[in-house]
Amino acid sequence: MMETAEGWHNRLAAPLLLAAFAALAYYPALDADFVFDDLPNIVFNQAVHPENLRDLGRVFSSEVSRTRPLALLTFALNHLAGRMNPTGYHLVNTAIHAANSIILYAVFLQLFAVAGRKNTLVPTGNGERTSWSFYGAALWAVNPVQTQAVTYIVQRMTSLAAMFYLLAILVHLLRRRERVPAGPATAAIAIFFLLGLGCKEIILSLPAALLVIDFCLFPEKTKKSWPVLAAFLAAAAGTGFFMNGGRLPDLTAPYPERGFSPVERVMTQWRVLWHYLGLVLMPLPSRLHLTYGIAPSRGLLAPWTTTAGLSAMAAAIAWAVYIRKKRPLAALAVLFYFTGHAIEASFVNLELAFIHRLYLPTVFLPLIFLPRPENAAVRLRKLAPVLVAVIALFSFWTVQRNLEWSATPEFWGSNIKRGADTARAWNNLAASLIDNGRLEEALTAIDRGMRIAVRTEDVAMLGYNRGYALFFLGRLDEAKKAFLKVADKFGAYRHTLLFLGLIELRKGNPAAAGRLADELAKKPALAYQASLLRARMAMARKDYRKAERHLLAARRTTAESPLYIRQRISLELVRLYLAWGDADRAYATLLEMTREFPQNYSAWRLIRLMLKSGGDTENAARIEQFLKSKGVTVRP
């Protein structure tokens, strides 16, 4: 990496190295499971599970993330290519991140060319510009804080929106440097804006970001940019006013089930943005976790760091404005950091802190540390070893963080130990423990989550998971009590009523289960659960053909249903075929389940047992090794 003042004459080397860095740093997470919001957005979202190209149009009718159709379309294409195998999704995410690193490198080249033309204190030679552009892009690309936007599959929404954002900035710089005609450039920026809007709303800050670039690097153009930004903000405000029913929002009323109001959320962000910055500068894996239990700010002095955060923000912005003539790139880095957060740090109804929100705002931060070289070549030779060491250290930490993502129960356990003490985190830990057969541990996590759960969604899921774990532990009375509590509050939540019927069957009350099945059959959306109960009753009488008819009918009527429904029916078919003595069809159904959803570890455990009992110890051992690598309890 150490070079002469001529630097990287072959500019192809830098993009290839950036792509290689991204590939190597994110390779350990290629088999990381779907987690957290991956489940509602991808795993359980039938709109992104096409069977053929004609089905791709379903993404536009998705009930989840419907305002982000382009991102959903990429998930649908992933499913079309490899169904629910997470490796394909991770490969696409890594490719997007590598592309963003290369685009950022190209943006840096333009920024240095502009600043150098204005005789400011930046590298002036082509070699130095190319080298600094490479180092800046590499420092951003391998920083461990970016793992949440890259390894966390659903946050492709963030990285893909950032790609169009960066492309728009690149075209804007080329337009300002008169390398691209104004008309085509403006059209391209508009197209990138619309494409980004189809991925995530963070693109809405793009007009302000372009104004910041003009303010720092093209001050003579700023006066012409203000009217465009004002018109855009007016249109956005008008759209928001219309969507709110023609009335102003109440900024002091708490969001439903959030525990904080819009005003309190904004005040909290004054602290959160500085917390984020600390993570960027010292991104130790031990400081990174998926959720952050940050207490909201209730007033300017509650806590006192609220006002301190606002004061520091104002000071940083003032400093950037002050230095913009002598150090325009450093000024740009500071102002863009706050501009990039403008949407997700505003009044929007979102959680207080997620570090994937750092992905876009941090792209220019390496510019702050750009030296003021009187002799750029000499400074570059001196600093190159330090930069290489930092890039290597960041890469190592990124690999460590990605290794954590690849083992789900341990991932959630470590996140909680680091401070992610939220109901959602405890519920996700419990769900992963249940999936991995560690039911007693799951109950402990559920109890902890239920003590702090506030949101309806968390209460419902924790209660359901509690009943589920108790049922498979054979504690039927406790399971019935848990499911009844969920049913009283949330009705037919997931498979609550089905499990109540199964409990009655296990307790020897087929009449009660039959009455429940009759009630379920009256409701089209729940009729498949009636078929499952009736199949179980037929199996108890050893009427296997009738049981199969019920299950196959349920399968036909749920072909377009969420994955968890289809998997439940397939599991019942496996149970039937094993009871019937048809091991071949049971095995084939299990394989079909794992092809549809590789994270179904219950199916993998059954496949292992069948292979082992059939004498295929070699393949059984391979599956056992795979399960243990995922933290799954494997019994002899």
Largest sheet, in brief, is: none
Tell me, briefly, the overall form: elongated
Can you give the mean pLDDT? 87
How many structural domains can be distinguished in the coordinates?
A: 3
Radius of gyration: 28 Å
Quantity of strands, as a count: 0
Helix content: 55-70%
Portion in beta strands:
under 5%
Total helical segments: 27
SS-based class: mainly alpha
First-residue to last-residue Cα separation: 52 Å
User: Which consecutive residue ranges, at least 5 long each, have pLDDT under 50?
Assistant: 1-9
Could you spell the SSE succession in H and E letters?
Answer: HHHHHHHHHHHHHHHHHHHHHHHHHHH
Explain what you see.
The chain is an all-alpha fold and 636 residues long. It has three domains: 13-34 and 84-250 and 259-403, no CATH class; 408-484, Tetratricopeptide repeat domain (Serine Threonine Protein Phosphatase 5, Tetratricopeptide repeat, Alpha Horseshoe), CATH 1.25.40.10; 495-577. Helix content is 66%, strand content 0%. The chain is built from 27 helices and no strands. Helix 11 packs across helix 12 (305-323).
